[in-house]
Design brief:
The chain has a domain of 219 residues: Rhodopsin 7-helix transmembrane proteins (Rhopdopsin 7-helix transmembrane proteins, Up-down Bundle), CATH 1.20.1070.10. Helix content is 73%, strand content 3%. The chain contains ten helices and three strands, in the order βααβαααβααααα. The chain binds 2-acetamido-2-deoxy-beta-D-glucopyranose (NAG). The site of 2-acetamido-2-deoxy-beta-D-glucopyranose (NAG) has 10 residues, from α1, α2 and α5.
Length: 317
């Protein structure tokens, strides 16, 4: 197989499957498996625990926890579109993925990542209202608005990715089938096509900019207002506590958006390929792992709910 495709090769038969070249190192496969399997297990366990708590505990039936529950729901799906496939290839050495599987991964990843941006924006807005407008909070964030915001987040994510997937499905794939990535991400996949990819790349750029920048702006504005009001708190311990919660949220949000922007909004030059591959680990592995930890398990109400659930389980035995 040739690395470049020219006109004469245009009529080569379409590949039956793609091959994911994850980290290009046979020797380290096992090490990656040992590293990533626990990450996946902890991610799933943490997020599923939060879903169970939010659904079963009456005390957690507030907008903030509905957002969290829905975010955890999203993270379990999000992690599961990428990690199991990757773990299988680390453990078995089989790196092929069917064309259908590849498109499914592309679709669900795009959909869930956009939805995640919306959720992070909605949650920071919710924090903003709770901290900066405490007197009007219950009025501004009532049940109806909360359901609307959640519905809008789940629906918005699907618009852009539908257009992009439609355009990708129109492309012809000829001889090349090696994807230089650990999952079927948009740019590495369309690189394999032998049709003109300008329209898809342009659309993908516009869609990802619209998916990333407005939620990022909302998130940043909310946190700036939050930090300004924290600085006005007079008690030192109160200030410190609020600040530590806020800074951990900000760190995760910054890692998520920062890595997304570098990968999707910066130009597609080949010198950035490996950096982008590495940065993808931030938003594919790290965010779903860390979100449940920082948003809830450090939180007093959630700790209470966990204790109560375990006590109940204990009593039943
Ligand atoms: C998601 O949000 C809806 C609407 O507020 C809520 O009824 C539902 O319980 C939430 N789901 C989870 C898993 O928290």
């Amino acid at each position: 197989m040739h690395l470049t495709i020219n006109q004469e090769e245009g009529n080569q038969t379409a590949p039956l499957a793609f091959i994911l070249l994850d980290f290009n190192s046979e020797d380290l496969q096992f090490l990656f498996a040992i590293l990533f399997l626990p990450i996946y297990i902890v991610t799933m366990a943490g997020n599923i625990l939060i879903i169970i708590l939010v659904v079963t505990d009456q005390h957690l039936h507030t907008p903030m926890y509905f957002f969290l529950g829905n975010l955890s729901c999203l993270e379990t799906c999000y992690s599961s579109t990428i990690m199991p496939r990757m773990l299988v290839s680390f453990l078995s050495g089989d790196r092929t993925i069917s064309i259908g599987g590849c498109f499914a991964q592309l679709y669900f990843f795009g959909y869930l990542a956009t939805t995640e941006c919306c959720f992070l924006a909605v949650m920071s807005y919710d924090h903003y209202l709770a901290i900066c407008k405490p007197l009007h909070y219950t009025m501004l964030m009532n049940g109806r608005i909360c359901v609307k915001l959640i519905a809008v987040s789940w629906i918005t994510g699907s618009f852009g990715i539908n257009v992009v997937i439609f355009l990708v499905s129109q492309l012809t794939f000829c001889g090349l089938n090696k994807i230089n990535h650990f999952f079927c991400d948009l740019i590495p996949v369309i690189r394999l096509s032998c049709s003109d990819t300008h329209l898809v790349e342009m659309t993908a750029f516009i869609v990802s900019s619209f998916g990333i920048l407005p939620p990022l702006l909302i998130t940043l504005t909310s946190y700036i207002c939050i930090i300004r009001s924290i600085l006005r708190i007079s008690s030192a311990t109160g200030k410190q506590k609020a600040f530590s919660t806020c800074s951990s949220h900000l760190t995760v949000v910054a890692c998520f958006y920062g890595s997304l922007m570098i990968v999707y909004v910066l130009p597609n030059v080949s010198s950035l390929n490996d950096v982008k591959k590495l940065l993808s680990l931030f938003y594919t592995l790290l965010t779903p792992l860390v979100n449940p930890l920082i948003y809830s398990l450090r939180n007093k109400e959630v700790k209470e709910a966990v204790k109560k659930t375990f006590r109940r389980l204990h009593r039943n035995h």
